[in-house]
Amino acid sequence: DAKTTQPTSMDCAEGRAANLPCNHSTISGNEYVYWYRQIHSQGPQYIIHGLKNNETNEMASLIITEDRKSSTLILPHATLRDTAVYYCIVPPTSGSRLTFGEGTQLTVNP
Amino acid sequence: DSGVTQTPKHLITATGQRVTLRCSPRSGDLSVYWYQQSLDQGLQFLIQYYNGEERAKGNILERFSAQQFPDLHSELNLSSLELGDSALYFCASSVAAPLGSTDTQYFGPGTRLTVL
Question: What is the structure's pLDDT at A2?
């Protein structure tokens, strides 16, 4: 699996954009970047994924650098309910198992 | 709501016992995955089934076994339980794209197992 590196924790003010970085310098050309989050012992929640181009859905935006070695998840207007551990994952194309690292604990403050 | 259901939500049992955790995948999904999350190990992949057949194995103990039935629901059987088996057990499902392509997994709410 391509290794990912994320900051251990981040803080964000409610209503502001939360930008969560992820480094994945060993990513292969056909491997996707996935983001999940886990809110306090609930099941991990799929957020977004991308290959090369930037992606946006109703939850977030994903910005992938041109060399694909890093990406940023953007929550445009963070709310208190976005407080969670965010995982950046690069699953292998040979199988679909997800390898969860430590993730980033995002705390949204009022 | 991901569409993946797991029962029971909570399970309390004693060491040495055997339990069965159940998972129903999203409608149309052929693959089921099991993950374990304990305090000291984080989220770890256990096993994957695709359309009734085992497809991939992770860090699953020999005391644990799983199966996927013709209606695609899956069960995870844990036997000879030890204190260290206390954890959250999550099931996920996916459509199951062909090998070599991506496939989004959707997780259930989990079963919290406490072994006393």
Answer: 72
Residues of B in Cβ contact (< 8 Å) with A42: 109-110
- The answer, for A41 touching chain B at a CB cutoff of 8 Å, is yes
What whole-number distance in Å separates Cα of residue B116 and Cα of residue B109?
A: 22
Inform me whether the pLDDT recorded for B97 exceeds 70. no
- Quick check: A44 contacting B, CB < 8 Å? yes
Cα–Cα distance measured from residue B32 to residue B50, given in angstroms and rounded to the nearest whole number: 6
- Written as six digits, the tokens of B58 are 């992770």
Residue B62 neighbours by CB under 8 Å, 6+ apart: none
Amino acid, res. A103: G
Of A44, A46, A97, the CB nearest to B56: A97
The pLDDT of B20-49, averaged and rounded, is 93
What's at A40, amino acid-wise? Answer: H
What is the bridge-based pairing of β-strands B10-13 and B5-7?
unpaired
Mark yes or no for CB contact B100/A95 under 8 Å. Answer: no
CB atoms within 10 A of CB A13: 11
